[in-house]
Amino acid sequence: MRTISNxxxxxxxxxxxxxxxxxxxxxxxxxxxxILSLLDDQLVxxxxxxxxxxxxxxxxxxxxxxxENNQNLxxxxxxxxxxxxxxxxxxxxxxxxxxxxxxxVSIPLQNxxxxxAYFEKFRLDSFSL
Length: 129
Known about the structure:
The chain contains 3 helices and no strands. The protein is an all-alpha fold.
């Protein structure tokens, strides 16, 4: 009976860890998506300034390289998210292989600890210093 509960606890931890990993991947995708949006806006401005001979062609080329690098990073993080999502579905025993966006986790604090043995020891140690 004890090994079954240990197995259950380990599998719950594995699923939780994988879920958090998927959320991290989602945040990375969202971050690089926003970076690409900003770079896209900058490209429009730099193109106009380059055509007006206010900036060098090399500035536009450097910005294009930065944009392409971020596109590659975004594609990498999207692939990583898909892989981690499929791993999560396997861990959960789900046969559904649909691509989904996982909801954020909200963990509310239940009780604010105001008194504990640790806090009391910390308080007494502080007095002794």
